[in-house]
Every structure is written in structure tokens, then in C-alpha cells.
Design brief:
15 strands, Beta-lactamase, alpha+beta, 393 residues, 13 helices, globular, eight-stranded antiparallel β-sheet, three-stranded mixed β-sheet
Length: 393
């Protein structure tokens, strides 16, 4: 029996969970903090909770369903990371390979003009010295170079964005610090060379295809099932439209979105942000990893993903947390101020998504919304976590 069949063929049933999670969802919708959501909770390999609520398109009155397709944003990262590690297993790349082995023209320099070696490991762990443009001031080097964060600038090619990234100085020497970054976009370009096919084909042949994730890809989703994108605002979230830039002084001010980017075939497949899919597909991916990785990865590879790969380095603004391959790891729940068990994997997506896997509790949770940033790191996420653990305990 496939993981998808074991999860979804039986109805979800956990009377302790349902009222608490329902209340968290209902409150977020009533207070107009989110527009729509799909929440799935699996424990012990079975679906313990499932609900689709709210609107996929508020203006059209279209409700969210379980098969609603959401823009994944950074949920793309662990999937592309898994594809990269599969290529490592195949011997096509090595973690200590220099990026120039695959991208000979990608040679960003330090501020002093020296050119350090950036490895595949550096890219996978966000220790390459790269950044995201939205994390720097408006007059920073990425802004001056016109670098795309992978969420905007429809029609931008891989070659164009790589050239722009490489023209900006590195923020630090590779391996000396940690910074959330465009590293997975650079990695995606390297995987195309290593795999001998496009990044979407690399991911399809090694991850989404073997797992039967038919609704998850870099390809344009069915418009009739795609959730419209919204952003936090008062008195209710605002629809993003063709282009949306977060205004100051809000968090993430200056971050730009182009929700229709996925429909432009000339847009490069951002390894950090360009996929779309359903909550169910992503839960199958997470449960595959939690259960050991077959058929996409070996157990020892999954163990490496779930082990800190940045020993001695801190993740700024994330106490009690470290980074593995593809996601963060909770090391000290009290310091991180979360109810999770130490060793929990977690990350999110800037369009309004969150997820976590608590291996000790045999628990996988996916909460997708169409509302940035509430659905990624707002009160809804905290309420959802609290409701789940209260129900379990």
C-alpha cells in the first residue's frame, strides 16, 4: 500500500483533536486574518485530522477544497533538497563539489575581491555567503543588481539571475556564517547540469513522480484549482493582483510578489520558491521522509537531513533552532518557544504556509493558507500548534 493510500483512504478521526483545531481555524477566519486554508494532521501514519475552510478566491466566492492548489514558495526548498541528495546517492554530485564544477561562470567574490570556493554543501545549508534581497536595505547590492528573489520578475531566466547574484559581493566567507538565501536557486541551476535535464524534470523523475504527487510541480497549475494570493492588511487581507510589494514599515517590507509568475514559461524554475501543489501532496512527501525515505531516499540520507549541518553557527532570530538539509530543526523547545519535541523538523512558505514533523510523536502537520504572512508565522500558526499538542496531550 502506498503512503498516500494509507493516509487518505480511511476517514480522519481523532475526537480530541478536531474541536481544538476547528476552533483555531474558525477564529482566524472570523477575525479575517486568513482567507482560506487546508490543514492536515497525520499521526502514527494515519490521518488524524483534515479540513478545508474559507475561500480560495474571496472575490469569486470560490471555497477552498482539499484539492486546492497553493503557491508553495519555500515549501519548494525541501523538495529540491531531496532531489539534490538523490543525485548525491546516484554519484552525480558530491556535497564537497565546488559549484563551479557545474556553473563555471558563477564566481561571486568577497568584499575584498577574493574568490572563495562555494560547495554544494554550502548551498544546501545556506552557508554560502548569499542572501535574499528582501533581507537587505533598499539600497543594498542585491537591489542595485536587480536580483530576483524567485517570487517576482516573471520571464527572468536562470542565466540572467545567476549573473546578477554573482555580481554582488558575498555577505561572508562560505562556511563562516548562516543566512537565509537564494542558495537553492543557484543549486537548482547546478542540478540541471548534473542531472542532464531541467530542474522540473530532475524533481519529477526522482521525487514527485515516484511518490505519485500529481498536483505538485513547477508547471502551471489548473487555474480553476489555484488559490488566489492575499497579503496581511486591515480590516482584511488584500488581494495581491499581478504584482504586490510589501509596504513599509511592515515586516518583510520591500518583498515583491508576482503570483502569476508560474504561468510565464520563460520564468526560471526557482529551486527555493517556484513550485505549487496541494496540502495532501506535501503531507505524503513529509510522511515519506518521516518513515525513512523509501522510495526516494535512503534512511541514512534522511538522517543527514534531520541532523544539524551548521555546527557552531547560529540562525539569527531563531533561538533553540539549527539547520539540517532542507529545513530547520528544533534543538531547545523552550528557547524556541514551541510545544514541539526536540528534534522536530519545520519550515514554511512566504505565501502563507507552514509545516512540521515531530518524529518523536510520529506526527506530521501541513497548514497551507493563501494569506502572507499570517499563514507562515502569524498567530494562526501558533494557535494551530497549540491546538494540536493540547489535543494529543
Amino acid at each position: 500500500m502506498t503512503i498516500a493510500a494509507s493516509l487518505f483512504d480511511a476517514p480522519a478521526a481523532d475526537p480530541a483533536l478536531s474541536p481544538r483545531i476547528d476552533a483555531a481555524i474558525d477564529r482566524a477566519l472570523a477575525e479575517k486574518r486568513i482567507v482560506g486554508t487546508v490543514v492536515l494532521v497525520a499521526q502514527d501514519g494515519r490521518l488524524a485530522y483534515r479540513r478545508a475552510a474559507g475561500l480560495a478566491d474571496r472575490e469569486a466566492g470560490r471555497p477552498v477544497r482539499e484539492d486546492t492548489v497553493f503557491l508553495y514558495a519555500s515549501l519548494t526548498k525541501p523538495i529540491v533538497t531531496a532531489a539534490a541528495l538523490r543525485l548525491v546517492e546516484e554519484g552525480r554530485i558530491a556535497l564537497n563539489d565546488p559549484v563551479t564544477k557545474f556553473l563555471p561562470d558563477f564566481r561571486p567574490k568577497l568584499a575584498d575581491g577574493s574568490e572563495p570556493v562555494i560547495t554544494i554543501h554550502h548551498l544546501l545549508t545556506h552557508t554560502a555567503g548569499l542572501i535574499y534581497g528582501f533581507t537587505e536595505p533598499a539600497d543594498g547590492p542585491y537591489h542595485r543588481a536587480g536580483v530576483s528573489d524567485g517570487l517576482d520578475v516573471p520571464g527572468r531566466s536562470f542565466a540572467d539571475n545567476l549573473r546578477r547574484i554573482a555580481s554582488a559581493p558575498l555577505a561572508f566567507a562560505p562556511g563562516s556564517d548562516w543566512a537565509y538565501s537564494l542558495a537553492l536557486d543557484v543549486l537548482g541551476a547546478a542540478l540541471e547540469v548534473a542531472g542532464g535535464e531541467t530542474l522540473p524534470d530532475v524533481v519529477r523523475s526522482r521525487i514527485t513522480g515516484p511518490l505519485g504527487l500529481r498536483d505538485t510541480s513547477f508547471a502551471p497549475p489548473d487555474r480553476a484549482r489555484l488559490a488566489a494570493a492575499y497579503a496581511d492588511d486591515e480590516p482584511e487581507p488584500v488581494r495581491m493582483g499581478d504584482h504586490y510589494a510589501v509596504p513599509a514599515p511592515r515586516p518583510f517590507a520591500g518583498l515583491s510578489f508576482a503570483p502569476g509568475r508560474i504561468f510565464d514559461p520563460a520564468s526560471y524554475p526557482s529551486g527555493g520558491a517556484a513550485m505549487a501543489g496541494t496540502a495532501g501532496d506535501f503531507l505524503v512527501f513529509l510522511e515519506t521522509l518521516r518513515r525513512g525515505g523509501a522510495p526516494i531516499l535512503r534512511p541514512e540520507t534522511v538522517q543527514a537531513m534531520a541532523t544539524s549541518q551548521i555546527s557552531g553557527l547560529a540562525m539569527p532570530g531563531s533561538p533553540g533552532t539549527t539547520f539540517g538539509y532542507g529545513f530547520a530543526l528544533v534543538t531547545d523547545p523552550a528557547a524556541a518557544e514551541v510545544p514541539m519535541t526536540a528534534g522536530t523538523w519545520r519550515w514554511g512558505g512566504v505565501y502563507g504556509n507552514s509545516w512540521f514533523v515531530d518524529p518523536a510523536r510520529r506526527l506530521s502537520v501541513v497548514g497551507l493558507t493563501n494569506t502572507a504572512f499570517e499563514g507562515m508565522n502569524g498567530q494562526f500558526v501558533a494557535d494551530l500548534r497549540a491546538a494540536i499538542y493540547a489535543g494529543l496531550d
